[in-house]
């Protein structure tokens, strides 16, 4: 990019129709009156590498990557942050002036920022967390919880082998609990996190018994369509602090925007309303 070019960034996925990122970055560009454009790009997997090598030459300063490209983008990148390496996937790319690609993953950061904003009294070191799910989203959550110093993480997943694999990778603070026994460990948790797709519009409900939820615990769901899932509803009724998943999407976008457009943006209620609208 030359000095007088307008910086471009965007989100690359396949398909890309559902993404909320253009609304989100568009809101910030407008709010701060910054020059720049943020565009959705539908790129087939076989074209990902050539597109990523071409974008810097076309005035792009970076990009977000989403399903199904997060793992492939990490492999293609020339430099990888520690947290992206740990998660095994990239969601934020920065193109250097020489065209090289830096990969980062801000999903765990977004998760933690959202949690701290929504449950300011929660202290990671206070006690155990229960995490449902062992897919890509769980990897980001585990990276953040381990880094924040959560002393014990009880991980439960329908397919136990995937949880066992994450224990291997994320270390001894993780205890794997059988999916059918998930309800039993909830009562000891300071924090409960759903990283599965259960409860999302069009998906089955999370059917884990929730009567063990304790008042004062913090419960968060990465699902944000609907905003109030069955898990969050049950948690609210049990007197827990609840944190919905939309904020994670908003907060994970902050580091990328700052790197590309030079301004650290704020996550506000107005932004939430724009993204939901
Ligand atoms: P993501 O990247 O969003 O985490 P993923 O890697 O496909 O997506 O993981 C989806 C998660 O939701 C997994 O933990 C999955 O459990 P399995 O590993 O057993 O597949 C969980 N999940 C999806 N549908 C489920 C269902 N019907 N019952 C229980 N768990 C389910």
UniProtKB/TrEMBL annotation:
Annotated function: Involved in the biosynthesis of the chorismate, which leads to the biosynthesis of aromatic amino acids. Catalyzes the reversible NADPH linked reduction of 3-dehydroshikimate (DHSA) to yield shikimate (SA).
Similarity annotation: Belongs to the shikimate dehydrogenase family.
Organism: Ruegeria atlantica
Ranges of residues in domain SDH C-terminal: 245-267
CDD domains linked: NAD_bind_Shikimate_DH
Keywords: Amino-acid biosynthesis, Aromatic amino acid biosynthesis, NADP, Oxidoreductase
The name this protein goes by in its record: Shikimate dehydrogenase (NADP(+))
Active site residues per record: 70 (proton acceptor)
Biological process annotations from GO: amino acid biosynthetic process; aromatic amino acid family biosynthetic process; chorismate biosynthetic process; shikimate metabolic process
Residues of the Quinate/shikimate 5-dehydrogenase/glutamyl-tRNA reductase domain: 129-197
GO cellular component: cytosol
Listed HAMAP family: Shikimate_DH_AroE (MF_00222)
Record EC number: 1.1.1.25
InterPro entries with a match to the protein in the record: Aminoacid_DH-like_N_sf, NAD(P)-bd_dom_sf, SDH_C, Shikimate_DH, Shikimate_DH-bd_N, Shikimate_DH_fam, Shikm_DH/Glu-tRNA_Rdtase
Binding site for shikimate: 19-21, 66, 91, 107, 224, 252
Segments forming domain Shikimate dehydrogenase substrate binding N-terminal: 11-93
Quaternary structure and interacting proteins, as annotated: Homodimer.
Binding site for NADP(+): 82, 133-137, 157-162, 222, 245
Pfam families named in the record: SDH_C, Shikimate_DH, Shikimate_dh_N
Annotated metabolic or biological route of this protein: Metabolic intermediate biosynthesis; chorismate biosynthesis; chorismate from D-erythrose 4-phosphate and phosphoenolpyruvate: step 4/7
One example GO MF annotation: NADP binding
Catalytic reactions on record: shikimate + NADP(+) = 3-dehydroshikimate + NADPH + H(+)
């Amino acid at each position: 990019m030359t000095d007088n070019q307008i910086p471009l960034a965007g989100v690359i996925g396949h398909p890309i129709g559902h993404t909320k990122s253009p609304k989100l970055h568009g809101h910030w560009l407008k709010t701060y009156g910054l020059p720049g454009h943020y565009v959705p790009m539908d790129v087939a997997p076989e074209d990902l590498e050539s597109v990523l090598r071409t974008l810097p030459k076309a005035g792009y300063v970076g990009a977000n990557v989403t399903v199904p490209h997060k793992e492939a983008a990490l492999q293609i990148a020339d430099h990888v942050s520690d947290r992206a390496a740990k998660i095994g996937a990239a969601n934020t790319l920065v193109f250097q002036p020489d065209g090289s690609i830096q990969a980062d993953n801000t999903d765990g950061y977004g998760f933690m920022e959202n949690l701290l904003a929504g449950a300011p009294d929660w202290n990671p070191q206070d006690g155990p967390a229960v995490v449902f799910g062992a897919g890509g989203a769980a990897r980001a959550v585990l990276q953040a919880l381990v880094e924040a110093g959560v002393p014990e993480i009880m991980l439960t997943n329908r397919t136990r082998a995937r949880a066992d694999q994450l224990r291997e990778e994320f270390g001894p603070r993780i205890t794997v609990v059988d999916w059918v026994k998930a309800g039993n460990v909830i009562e000891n948790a300071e924090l409960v996190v759903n990283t599965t797709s259960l409860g999302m519009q069009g998906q089955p409900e999370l059917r884990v018994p929730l009567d063990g939820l304790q008042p004062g615990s913090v419960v968060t769901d990465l699902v944000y369509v609907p905003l109030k899932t069955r898990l969050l509803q049950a948690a609210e009724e049990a007197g827990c602090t609840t944190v919905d998943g939309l904020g994670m999407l908003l907060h994970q976008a902050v580091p990328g925007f700052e790197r590309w457009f030079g301004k650290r943006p704020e996550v506000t209620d107005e932004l939430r309303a724009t993204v939901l609208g």
